[in-house]
Amino acid sequence: MEFDIEENLAKLPKKPGVYIMHAEDDEIIYVGKAVNLFNRVHSYFRKNKKSMKIQKMVTHIHHFEYIVTDSELEALVLESNLIKRHRPRYNTMLKDDKSYPYIKVTIKEDYPRILFSRKPRGDTGSDKSKSKFFGPYTSAYGVRDTIELINKIYKLRTCNRVLPRDVGKDRPCLKYHINMCSGPCIEGCVTSDEYRKNVEGALDFLNGNYAPILKMLEDRMNEASEEMRYEDAITWRDLLNSVKSVAQKQKITSSDAEDRDVVALYSDQDEAVVQIFFVRNGRLVGRDHFYMTGIQDNTTSEILDDFVKQFYSGTAFLPREIMLEEDVEDREVIEEWLTKKRGAKVSLLVPKRGMKERLIRLAKKNAELVLTTDKEKIRKESERTIGAAKELADLIGIESVERLESYDISNISGFESVGSMVVFENGKAKHSDYRKFRIKTVVGPNDYASMKEVLNRRFKRYIEARNDEDSDSFAKAPDLILMDGGKGQVNIALEVLEELDLKIPVAGMVKDDHHRTRGIYFNNVELPIDSHSECFRLVTRVQDETHRFAIEYHRSLHGKAQIHSVLDDIQGIGDTRRKALMKAFGSIDAIKKASEEELARVPGMNARAAEAVYEFFRVAVPQHK
Question: Rounded to an integer, what distance in angstroms lies between the CA atom of residue 520 and that of residue 505?
């Protein structure tokens, strides 16, 4: 049924919830939350003053839907999840999706360990009472170095043994023999109290209390030197210097030993950089920056509001304070949401003076430096990726090519055929969405039939998965399918899509005599492509990546396939006869050329088996002649 906007506007409830704007092709183009859905959604269609971005967005609205929630807090959480999942084009978006390393101390174990962690659950999950987390840090390399340094000094275990249950059951590992573990798995080697004292020293280190460890290392260095144990003295000296280096990097920023994030931004045209300083226990432990897009006409407060909701919906650690350069519209509901998520009070603050205000100014200056320094780099990267995707869309006459999929078929001697799917989003390869297919229904090197199987499997999965929030990349449909071939490949894809009642543009890469792309085949027309354009370079990257991915999969199966695939498909040829044939003839090619008499003379073969091999290579798969 045709969607009547006026009629559906009148049906909107005056309750909190989330509204979802759709384009004509059902693409989600905007997600927002409202305390009053009736008033908020009506505002988009009134003749009042709107920003240029909202005006443009409204012209693309074909229909909308809404979800009623019990509170504004529930609406905020749902809005955040939907934006993260659908990445609507008119929402202000956080471009980076980073995960940070943490240091995990398993304090509730009898013999605690210090571990590297990417996904701490200590603040919200069952791990809360079992472990203590430090971070986030911005360098995984630095975290691993710190853990190694602590283990060298305090000789804490790194194994997964359950102690004291497993004490004395197995021999100690290499770490004990090279004096990097105190050996709690050995009966009588180190007491629980002695080990716990070392753990407390490690916790002091991680909390930034370096004075005791610096004194201890210096004393041991001097003692070893006086006793002329110079190798030991050098070891203690190196550890002492390492600790000093760590201490110097963690500059003191306040005396209150609080955990806080310092957030400020610098914007220019359609992009902004948000800078965060991570302060833990009153010390600056790291900093990072993030790009925000789709910010035209948005105020600093609005951009910060969107950033805070998107960034803190995905980060595991929440500090007690988040310091912002400006207040945000949803401050109270965001504080309520983050407090609930952390399990303890979280405050959004806007410092006006003192050290905290200076930190805000420093963060803003860093954001400006990042954006200014990287502006040309960002522009070139945008031309190479997003700009190239737009050129490709313009060339074939479609609205956009945000997601592009390309497919290839590869086989080994006509057997072990495999298909590959590569994905580009906004002109960049998205490796996490790549997929491999082992051909199941096609015998021999029939690329068209194999491609049909691959596309059928891929898009049937799409039909099954598109409404499943927990599904993988198959739940997304591409804006364009780019086949590594011309008319034949394109027609195969169109045939599959028509059978599945899907409407997705399909283009092919037309190649010259040297197998180089010379044009794009679309809607039964070959469109020339400028070999000096970014569009051409993108198509070439897609083609190269499609081949690379297929060939790598091909090679991963090659050893097994070369020996097993062809012969194991012959009735009556098992492992013993296959080995005998390979030993007698040396290669698959030699077996193909052998006569029935020669095959029958191989130990373990008989006339029936020899006939089966002979006929297989001349009847079942004539391409092997």
Answer: 12
Sheet bearing 63-68, strands edge to edge = 28-34, 17-22, 63-68
> What is the residue whose two structure tokens read 């506007």?
9
Same domain, 497 and 576: no
Which of 56, 91, 126 represents a domain boundary (last residue)? 91
Q: Clarify whether residues 445 and 585 are in a common domain.
A: no
Q: Identify the pLDDT of residue 625.
A: 35
Give the residue from 226, 249, 272 where a domain finishes: 249
Residues 156 and 185 placed together within one structural domain of the fold: yes
379 found inside a domain: no
Question: Is residue 82 domain-resident?
Answer: yes
- Asked if 258 contacts 60 with a C-beta cutoff of 8 angstroms, the reply is no
Is residue 231 a part of any domain in this protein? Answer: yes
CATH for 69 = 3.40.1440.10
Q: Give me 318's structure tokens.
A: 């929440």
323 and 233 in a common domain: no
Range(s) of the domain holding residue 587? 570-624
Residue 153 lies in a domain: yes
Q: How many CB atoms lie within 10 A of CB 358?
A: 12
Percent of the chain with pLDDT over 90: 28
Give the Cα separation of 3 and 585 in Å (integer).
71
Q: How far is CA 398 from the centre of its chain?
A: 28
Residue type for position 131: S
Name the residue among 96, 79, 97 with its Cα closest to residue 88: 79
Do 195 and 330 sit in the same domain of this protein?
no
Rounded Cα distance between 164 and 553, Å, is 46
Angle between helices 37-45 and 52-59 (to 10 degrees): 90
Q: Going by C-beta distance under 8 Å and a sequence separation of 6 or more, which residues neighbour residue 48? A: none
Dmax (CA) for the chain in angstroms is: 97
In whole angstroms, give the CA distance from residue 160 to residue 398: 55
Q: Tell me which amino acid residue 202 is.
A: A
- Provide the 8-state DSSP code for 476: S
What are the φ/ψ torsions at residue 498 (nearest 5 degrees)? -65, -40
* Residue with the larger pLDDT of the pair 423 and 99: 423
412, 517: one domain: yes
What's the CA angle centered on 80, arms 75 and 86, to 5 degrees?
Answer: 120
Do residues 286 and 429 share a domain? Answer: no
- Of 265, 262, 241, give the one whose Cα is nearest residue 253: 262
**pLDDT for res 473:** 65
Number of domains in the chain: 5
Do 197 and 235 lie in one domain? The reply is yes
Average pLDDT of span 103-112: 87
Residues 6+ apart with CB under 8 A from 69: 15, 16, 17, 18, 75, 78
Structure pTM? 0.47
Instruction: Provide the 3-class DSSP secondary structure of residue 60.
Output: coil
Helices (H), ranges, 277-398: 300-314, 331-342, 354-382, 388-396
